[in-house]
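The freezer alarm interrupted the setup, so I double-checked each line after restarting. Inputs confirmed:
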Amino acid sequence: MRSLLLMSAAAVLIGAAPAQKLPTPNDIVTGAPASAWKEIPADDLLVMDLANGGRIVIQLAPDFAPVHVANIQALARGNYWQGAAVYRLQDNYVAQWGHNDSDKPWPAGVTVKPPAEYTRAYSGLAITPLGSPDAYAPGAGFSGGWPIAYSEKAGWANLAHCYGTVGVGRDLSPDTGTGGELYAAIAPLRHLDRNIAVVGRVIDGMSNLSSLPRGTEALGFYKNKAQYVPIARIQLASQMSAGERLAYEYMDTASPTFAQYLHLRANRHDDFYIQPAGGVDLCNVQVPVRKKA
Amino acid sequence: MRSLLLMSAAAVLIGAAPAQKLPTPNDIVTGAPASAWKEIPADDLLVMDLANGGRIVIQLAPDFAPVHVANIQALARGNYWQGAAVYRLQDNYVAQWGHNDSDKPWPAGVTVKPPAEYTRAYSGLAITPLGSPDAYAPGAGFSGGWPIAYSEKAGWANLAHCYGTVGVGRDLSPDTGTGGELYAAIAPLRHLDRNIAVVGRVIDGMSNLSSLPRGTEALGFYKNKAQYVPIARIQLASQMSAGERLAYEYMDTASPTFAQYLHLRANRHDDFYIQPAGGVDLCNVQVPVRKKA
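Predicted 3D structure, all chains:
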């Protein structure tokens, strides 16, 4: 018996639902009009190739942490990560990479002590509300394709720590991190919201990080350098040749298509489900992102 | 520079905080009185040993899915899983094991078509409320050491799908699964709540599942049997000899100690944090469980 379909979003991509059925979230994605998609600028795509062949693609978020993101772009252009590695894998927490304890000099254009870009101003953001309650902030929703939390009253907004969120390692405050040491959350880590600079999210290849061996030292650091996972190269898509350049697009979270998708993510009625929740967690919505054809 | 401490619960275990500081969640755990802990019955511990040496320990939840749990106990006693394997690993979703498409006969004592134990009655449960809003249910909190969601008005309660939650694979409804095919959530999957029988949670060795290679077929199934991760044995702790028998205990979620822990998980002020959230997600509380000394 091949038990347990346990349908996931990915599953439903296999085939279109019969016509008489209500659409699934993935029916919405596959049927979305071109107008529902926005291309990610090539300068905002950070492409990390592991020496083992695995590729991880990160979308940067300059609207939320402009100085840290500019640093990361300068680090990529300056080839700062040559010889870098993934040196930490803490289960249910983070994968982290960079040079760890080296004192490699910063390339040109890096602001060594950036401001604490842990939140940004609420004003100026067009927000699609989540429509479900959030444990970490008065408000939660989406803006410019990103899952965010916010307080309209207090005037702040922040990128939410969901699966795949990328942030900047820092030491204890007042250090704010420079950008050389990055982590990807391999679990929702909302308690880190507003405590660290979030600079983007992994949009492709996340399993190349999440399936790495867990480090056995405190905090998931690998015990010795032989266990490090070497990085072959980190570059911006804008640095790639025309033939190899990557392009991705995300669903416009202000579009009617996204509103439909969001509603269906909160009210699942794919064949597998017998009881829609009537709500959805911010991190479980998963804004659609795809390679550009 | 060894940047990014990114303190986690595990981190704080390294050393006790200086006396003048407020306690951290882990200070509460390490200082908890014996009265705050409850031992898990040996019949409720399912011990899965992978052929690669990795051990996964699961606490069963007979108060929430009694027929399915009785099935699992009968399957362990009947050595049903001899020759079984982990055959599915879907990133950010589930690890799944059993015999997949075999028709191995059920051992004695198995109810082949159990009832749909997807919720249980709200009445009769002593509940410690989460104290933060939940996206999936009118109420969320803890009962008997478990994270639960509930509707007092509608009269139901269910075990929540958090990282490590174990459930029973099933085909499309009205199938309810028997218990031979099990999965562990490698991410919070709250949208599955009330749609499937939850039978327990991994309390030790979760990284032995979460770090396995992701399957490349639809739904994360491994492409061929050579990729399967063989299981050496699945047994109850009560079947183990006195010398090797495992014992675990969980923090009593009705205890004042747990109330302190819960408050501090929602209001982190470990050295790393500069902005406590003032709230916490049900799945991010992580009820303390430990090996019994």
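Quick read of the result. The first helix of chain B runs from residue 9 to 12.
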